[in-house]
């Protein structure tokens, strides 16, 4: 059974308006793959449809060899994929620790949960220092770390990250991307949606460029970062 995520001919519509027009891509085990594109290109829509938050109009989604097209989100979580949506979606009135444990609520093996909790708190020392703090009082960057930490606590081996750098100061953007590298080195697979194309391509193995609901260019991150259209449209024309 091939591990990873395989999406074929994905179409997604909001009412009568189709936002994603037959998109295909693969995320192989252990890879960081990035989906880049301008505002409104359909990046978040793809993640939402893949993770069962919104219906798929056409196409297939295969996770670790199982077809999960249009499965509800809660069933997909059990198969090892977690989505960290834009806007983070943390529980503001729960503490940091409680938020992390909510991520693990479906799991039964206490030893494994404790092991992952140690791993997450080691990955994010800021969260470790603030375990008892209410999540709503964390800074934006800390909330983003908490959202990623909670996804890891589900035990997922594939993470869908929607603009983890959004709204963060440059120093925190760098640290969140470094954490993505650490997570991938620990054997996880990451599908990273980003507007910050330069940073995303710097850490990704491969990427797909989305333009108004279709994939315009794809390839190795190095190829994309030198592609003239990518340079002009997403990397400020710099070489
Ligand atoms: N709930 C919704 N109802 C109707 N249309 C929507 C909805 N969500 C998104 N859209 C539309 O679908 C298209 C794709 O939006 P999407 O949020 O997926 O883009 P994106 O690439 O993630 O953009 P951004 O980088 O700005 O987050 C846009 O035209 C958007 O207006």
Automatic annotation (TrEMBL):
The keyword Transcription regulation does not apply. Residues 5-237 form the ABC transporter domain. Transmembrane segments: none annotated. It comes from the Bacteria. Pfam families: ABC_tran (PF00005). Signal peptide: none annotated. Keywords: Amino-acid transport, ATP-binding, Nucleotide-binding, Transport. One of its GO terms (biological process) is L-amino acid transport. The keyword Chloroplast does not apply. GO terms for molecular function: ATP binding; ATP hydrolysis activity; branched-chain amino acid transmembrane transporter activity. Belongs to the ABC transporter superfamily. This is Branched-chain amino acid transport ATP-binding protein LivF.
């Amino acid at each position: 059974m091939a591990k990873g995520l395989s999406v074929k001919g994905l179409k997604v519509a909001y009412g009568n308006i189709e936002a994603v027009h037959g998109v295909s891509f693969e995320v192989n085990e252990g890879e960081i793959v990035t989906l880049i594109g301008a505002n409104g290109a359909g990046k978040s829509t793809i993640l939402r449809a893949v993770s069962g938050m919104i219906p798929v109009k056409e196409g297939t989604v295969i996770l670790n060899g199982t077809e999960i097209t249009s499965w509800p989100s809660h069933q997909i979580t059990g198969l090892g994929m977690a989505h960290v949506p834009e806007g983070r979606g943390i529980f503001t009135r729960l503490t940091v620790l409680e938020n992390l444990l909510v991520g693990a609520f479906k799991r039964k093996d206490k030893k494994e949960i404790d092991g992952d909790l140690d791993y997450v708190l080691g990955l994010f020392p800021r969260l470790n220092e603030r375990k008892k703090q209410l999540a709503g009082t964390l800074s934006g960057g800390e909330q983003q770390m908490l959202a990623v930490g909670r996804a890891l606590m589900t035990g997922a081996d594939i993470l869908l990250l929607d603009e983890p750098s959004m709204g963060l100061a440059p120093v925190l953007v760098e640290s969140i991307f470094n954490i993505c590298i650490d997570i991938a080195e620990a054997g996880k697979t990451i599908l990273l949606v980003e507007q910050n194309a330069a940073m995303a391509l710097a850490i990704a193995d491969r990427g797909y460029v989305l333009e108004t609901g279709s994939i315009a260019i794809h390839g190795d991150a190095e190829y994309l970062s030198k592609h003239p259209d990518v340079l002009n449209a997403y990397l400020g024309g710099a070489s």
